[in-house]
Write a structure and sequence with these properties.
With about 260 residues, this protein is of the alpha+beta class. Helix content is about 35%, strand content about 30%. Helix 1 packs antiparallel against helix 2, helix 2 packs across helix 4 and helix 3 packs across helix 4. The two termini are about 35 Å apart. The N terminus and C terminus are likely disordered.
Length: about 260
């Protein structure tokens, strides 16, 4: 119930914030309306979305516009389109089912010693060209840029470099991140529907080495992650771990679609 209430508050905040922005195109307005109803819980899992001809009449638009909106929502995993039956709100997957996002605090605590974090850098900024590639947002978008160091005992455990899309999460601008680290705060406050991981190995540059208290050139494990809420990018984060103190473990299971094919 608490998660549903939080989702409802977030959706309502998003609708209110959208009213203050530049006018949306008809496509964007239909998309935002349907998405808000789904994320707020007004249209629960299993609810049949109005048929295309009903939405066409409601918004005074072409059927092609409505079809593109529903296709976009289906790609985001919010609805399922069934031939002749209609379009239905899907049951949301748990975050662990989509992609397990580990708690850095728990990872650090497993090494022994007290956990703590510190915000080493913070600024509100306009998205740069490089940032646009990471977040896939317009050039006019404002973002919150954060640098956070996580510690296991006295030793730096992870360097977190994060961009938060303030259009998607406006409340992050005034959040002090005094009790929860940025990643933990986002997991609690912003329900996400999709995520992408990129994992690579690299040598620590001078700045990273200083932040992690390691020798420049030391091997590091880098995880770059993007998350979305429906079609809206939420955050991009780069997590850098000293390779000697971290390993990545994943467990896989066949998807429901694969199981259905076998059956």
């Amino acid at each position: 119930m608490m998660e549903e209430a939080a989702s409802r508050r977030i959706a309502n905040m998003r609708v209110a914030a959208s009213a203050e922005r530049a006018p949306l195109s008809l496509h964007q307005r239909i998309l935002a309306d349907i998405e808000a109803r789904i994320l707020s819980g007004e249209w629960p899992p299993g609810y049949r979305v109005p048929f295309e001809h009903e939405l066409t009449a409601q918004y005074g638009c072409s059927r092609m516009t409505v079809s593109k909106v529903l296709t976009q929502l289906a790609k985001a995993g919010l609805v399922a389109r069934r031939r002749k039956a209609g379009t239905f709100v899907t049951r949301p997957h748990s975050q662990a089912a989509l992609l397990e996002i580990h708690d850095i605090k728990a990872e650090a605590a497993a090494l022994g010693g007290p956990y703590r974090f510190e915000i080493a850098g913070r600024r509100k900024c306009k998205i740069t060209r490089a940032d646009r590639e990471r977040l896939e947002v317009p050039a006019s978008t404002s973002a919150l840029e954060l640098t956070c160091r996580h510690f296991a005992g006295a030793q730096p455990f992870c360097l977190e470099e994060r961009l938060i899309n303030l259009t998607a999460v406006p409340e992050a601008e005034n959040e002090p991140f005094s009790e929860l680290s940025p990643g933990a705060w986002l997991v609690q406050r912003v329900p996400w529907t999709a995520a992408e991981h990129k994992i690579r190995a690299t040598g620590a540059d001078q700045r990273t080495a200083a932040a992690l208290a390691i020798v420049e050139g030391s091997p590091c494990l880098v995880i770059e992650r993007r998350t979305w809420r429906a079609i809206e990018p939420v955050t991009f984060v780069k997590l850098t771990y000293p390779a000697a103190a971290h390993e990545l473990v994943a467990r896989f299971a066949p998807s429901q679609m694969q199981e259905a094919r076998r059956g």
